[in-house]
Known about the structure:
Oligomer: heterodimer
Number of strands of chain B: 11
Largest sheet of chain A: 6 strands, mixed
Helix content of chain A: under 10%
Number of helices of chain A: 0
Mean pLDDT of chain A: 92
Strand content of chain A: over 45%
Order of helices and strands of chain B: EEEEEEEEEEE
Low-confidence stretches of chain B: none
Low-confidence stretches of chain A: none
Strand content of chain B: over 45%
Helix content of chain B: under 10%
Largest interface: A-B, 23 and 25 residues
Number of helices of chain B: 0
Structural class of chain A: mainly beta
Structural class of chain B: mainly beta
Largest sheet of chain B: 7 strands, mixed
Amino acid sequence: QKEVEQDPGPLSVPEGAIVSLNCTYSNSAFQYFMWYRQYSRKGPELLMYTYSSGNKEDGRFTAQVDKSSKYISLFIRDSQPSDSATYLCAMSVNTDKLIFGTGTRLQVFP
Amino acid sequence: GAVVSQHPSWVICKSGTSVKIECRSLDFQATTMFWYRQFPKQSLMLMATSNEGSKATYEQGVEKDKFLINHASLTLSTLTVTSAHPEDSSFYICSAQKTGTPTEEQFFGPGTRLTVL
């Protein structure tokens, strides 16, 4: 079993839709949870950073962490074609070694 | 800002040659940098952790004699792929950890695509 599981998609939604991206994990020691966006042939860009459980909102993006279920989510409201990318979840026990999910490819069509 | 650059952005080399990839933090100092490898449609896999002024720490299964890492300054880490073979063809991405902040986030470079013929 992988430490971090993420549905690879692809996920295709119309513009304006609410997108839900999820990851599950097995290591209960993870404390730091991140979501990255990666465009094709580019490095990952940090979107959201959460410590421990709870919600965090930034514009159209909301990150949720449920440590009791070992489940994290990223919601994108009013999705735009420019949101089309691969979204990677990542997590770590402390602030160094990141364990990544495989990424979910999202396509938002006009 | 927190900008990380990599050079070159892509490289093609012959089997058996060595290739050096540079990772620079442009507007902050990074005591720690990380090197990842990403195969097509797969996630980033950590190869090694690079600490300024000390030896790198390699992940299990990564050959330290093949992937040489040097972190000579607080803004530069290099990865040298020695005696490259076609199976080393991949997307290599570095990240730099911005220390001194509450979250000590990692900021990623744009990646280097290595193709070994």
